[in-house]
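Figure 6 in text form: structure in, sequence out.
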């Protein structure tokens, strides 16, 4: 069984291209997930909530978000279906589709998966799923293909890709952890800063190139907490193709990796809505970042 959630759009959800920003979709997924677990939680014989821990005590282990088609603002909600694809001893995996139903068929904007684990916040540790929780999740089970984790490249620490991350108080949830959605925002800020160094202008300010996110994979390893000192985000190009590129990132506290991400970017023609090959003037700095020559020139 799939749970259907109707998500209201906000004007503030849009990016410079007038599309719902890639970060915001992750917030939509969170709303759908929480709505599913709240709506369908059963009571025990004593009247207590049998699955309260799944609503109030979950942490995200991994996200994969694939962006299929841009979504623009309107006053009607967008639909989100969510369901469970795997239940293990201490984790479960959810899948999502963000879509509209049209006379021509389903129009999908985003597909995603999330691996979650129950968490004891008072002890800062994960726990196993209870029998009652497993039973509820089984009701949403639908077989799906296993999600293969993408290959990762060794981290690179270069000034080009360094971003000092200052956590805001509003980034933190009631348990004192930075909310999983905010990691996508941190990665976006780091990525934009790196591209601005390469091009001399941030994406959107430079009319020569428009970039959209095609896919993001994020692994959450250690919670990020609120503090006055900044964390470090290190980003680097691991692939540059004709019309797409891959940026990988690590969020760190010293030598401790708090999160790891891989982002696929595609050059986009705003007039046709299709991918496009950028000019060599635009692509050359990305190749220089990939092979290290950009950093060598700066240090020379």
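Output sequence:
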């Amino acid at each position: 069984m799939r749970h259907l959630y109707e998500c209201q759009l906000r004007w503030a959800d849009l990016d410079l291209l007038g599309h719902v920003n890639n970060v915001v979709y992750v917030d939509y997924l969170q709303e759908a997930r929480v709505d599913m677990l709240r709506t369908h939680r059963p009571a025990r014989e004593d009247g207590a909530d049998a699955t309260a821990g799944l609503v109030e005590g979950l942490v995200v282990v991994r996200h994969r978000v694939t962006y299929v088609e841009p979504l623009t603002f309107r006053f009607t909600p967008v639909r989100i279906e969510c369901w469970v694809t795997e239940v293990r001893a201490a984790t479960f995996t959810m899948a999502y589709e963000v879509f509209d139903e049209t006379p021509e068929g389903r129009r999908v904007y985003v597909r995603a998966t999330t691996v979650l684990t129950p968490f004891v916040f008072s002890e800062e540790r994960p726990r196993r799923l209870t029998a009652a929780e497993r039973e509820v999740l089984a009701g949403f089970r639908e077989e799906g293909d296993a999600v293969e984790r993408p290959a990762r490249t060794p981290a690179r620490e270069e000034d080009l890709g360094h971003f000092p991350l200052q956590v805001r108080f509003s980034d933190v949830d009631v348990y004192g952890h930075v909310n999983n959605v905010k990691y996508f925002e941190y990665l976006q800020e780091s990525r934009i800063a790196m591209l601005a160094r390469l091009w001399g202008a941030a994406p959107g300010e430079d009319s020569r190139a428009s970039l959209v996110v095609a896919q993001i994979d994020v692994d959450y390893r250690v919670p990020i907490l609120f503090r006055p000192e900044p964390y470090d985000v290190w980003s680097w190009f691991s692939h540059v193709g004709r019309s797409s590129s891959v940026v990988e990132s690590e969020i760190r506290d010293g030598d401790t990796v708090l999160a790891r991400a891989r982002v696929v970017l595609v050059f986009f023609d705003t007039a046709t809505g299709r991918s496009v090959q950028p000019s060599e003037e635009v692509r050359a700095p990305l190749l220089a970042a990939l092979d290290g020559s950009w950093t060598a020139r700066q240090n020379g």
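Caption detail: Residues 127 and 277 are 48 Å apart (CA to CA).
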